Amino acid sequence: MSRQVLQLGSEALQFLARPRTATLTTLRPDRTPHVAPVRFTFDASTGLARVTTRAGARKARNVSAGGPAARVALCQADGFRWLTLEGRAEVGDDPVRLAEAVARYTARYRTAPPAPPDLVVVEITVDRVLSLGLRPVRTPDQRVM
User: What are phi and psi of 65, to 5 degrees?
Assistant: First the structure.
């Protein structure tokens, strides 16, 4: 599967690099939203956002239950400025992917994430970006979102 990488402006990238808490919205099996505070990382070169969590956490269970079509929204806000990353998500426990997620988290937040025995990573392939108060975000076809 080819992945189109979103072209984010420098202001948006700087905003996403700040060590802030965000909210992750997933859908429960009954299709109602579940919103949870999370710490995350975003890799602009691949368009991949990562959230570490427990396998038994509601957010991980929601993504798993959604299968390959599971969509999520990850929103970071600072006052009236905000940026939301939307995309398809999957949960994994592959040691290499977990190590990458932990390393990126540690670099961003200057501390390692919690390490429960059932640690997993929710990987979000970002395909849509919405924002307010930041310079426009452009997709590969140069449409302003």
Answer: -65, -30
Residue 11 CB contacts under 8 Å (≥ 6 apart), including other chains: 134, 135
pTM beyond 0.90, yes or no? no
Question: How many whole angstroms from its chain centre is CA 75?
Answer: 8
Tell me which DSSP letter residue 3 carries.
-
Q: Which residue has the higher pLDDT, 135 or 9?
A: 9
What is the rounded CA–CA span in Å between residue 106 and residue 69?
Answer: 29
Please give the helix or strand (H or E) that residue 108 lies within, else none.
Answer: helix 95-109
| 84, two tokens | 């939301």
Query: What is the residue whose two structure tokens read 């990562």?
Result: 50
Please report, as a single letter, which amino acid is at residue 32: T
